[in-house]
Amino acid sequence: GQQVMQIPQYQHVQEGEDFTTYCNSSTTLSNIQWYKQRPGGHPVFLIQLVKSGEVKKQKRLTFQFGEAKKNSSLHITATQTTDVGTYFCAGQGDSNYQLIWGAGTKLIIKP
Amino acid sequence: SAVISQKPSRDICQRGTSLTIQCQVDSQVTMMFWYRQQPGQSLTLIATANQGSEATYESGFVIDKFPISRPNLTFSTLTVSNMSPEDSSIYLCSVGPGHPRTTDTQYFGPGTRLTVL
């Protein structure tokens, strides 16, 4: 079946350093979505990418969707303590309404 | 976006008992989803609940263990039956606006933290 692989599982950074998480799908996606889950919270929608090669920015966050619509990345520039949490990608296939969730990448800011 | 509430927010239950989790949405939505998230893990879809029809369960989940009701377009319940410690998890409901064939983005309730002793 469809799978979305997300790496790394954890990333420890010093505050001010950059952070990147990557997702790869086994099949072509119609769209990919990114969610953030703060510790103890629930997933909150960040953005949806639909077009091949699409790049979207939200302040310090940059989201990319690959040309083949099978991979995506989220890059955070100059991390802040408010960025702490787990970032999930979730892909939607062409023929199925369900979202296929990545395993998540936990962003940890080193004290 | 939709505003979603869940009750209870957390519970501690004894093995062999059942717990019903309620999910209330502030607007009518076609599709509601129930997920399970074990500590430190990703989300696993249990079932999709559509109003007026039987819920659709994912592989590994069965109606006898996780009966679902969807009496109207703003409400759903998930029951965790005959619980065991392995059922300890966070249970999340979510809604996806739009056409029944597309979920678009999903909005999540705050979750129910279940501990089974």
Structure notes:
The complex is a heterodimer of chains A (111) and B (117). Chain A is mainly β. Helices cover 0% and strands 58% of the residues of chain A. Chain A contains no helices and eleven strands. In chain A, a hairpin with a 6-residue loop joins strand 4 (29-37) and strand 5 (44-49). By secondary structure, chain B is mostly beta strands. In chain B, the strands form two sheets. In chain B, strands 2, 4, 5, 6, 9, 10 and 11 form a seven-stranded mixed β-sheet that branches. A four-stranded antiparallel β-sheet of chain B has the order 1-3-8-7, with no helix packed on it. In chain B, strand 7 and strand 8 (75-80) form a beta hairpin.
Order of helices and strands of chain B: EEEEEEEEEEE
Q: How many β-strands of chain A, per DSSP?
A: 11
Number of helices of chain A: 0
Mean of the pLDDT scores of chain B? 90
Beta-strand residue fraction of chain B: over 45%
* Biggest pleated sheet of chain A: 6 strands, mixed
Distance between the termini of chain A: 41 Å
**Largest interface (CB < 8 Å):** A-B, 18 and 23 residues
Which value, in Å, is the CA radius of gyration of chain B?
A: 13 Å
- Estimate what percentage of residues of chain A fall within beta strands: over 45%
What's the SSE blueprint?
The complex is a heterodimer of chains A (111) and B (117).
Chain A: E1 4-7, E2 10-14, E3 19-25, E4 29-37, E5 44-49, E6 55-58, E7 61-65, E8 71-76, E9 85-93, E10 99-101, E11 105-110
Parallel strand pairs in A: 2-11
Antiparallel strand pairs in A: 1-3, 3-8, 4-5, 4-9, 6-7, 7-8, 9-10, 9-11
Chain B: E1 4-7, E2 10-13, E3 19-25, E4 31-37, E5 43-50, E6 56-57, E7 68-72, E8 75-80, E9 89-96, E10 107-108, E11 112-116
Parallel strand pairs in B: 2-11
Antiparallel strand pairs in B: 1-3, 3-8, 4-5, 4-9, 5-6, 7-8, 9-10, 9-11
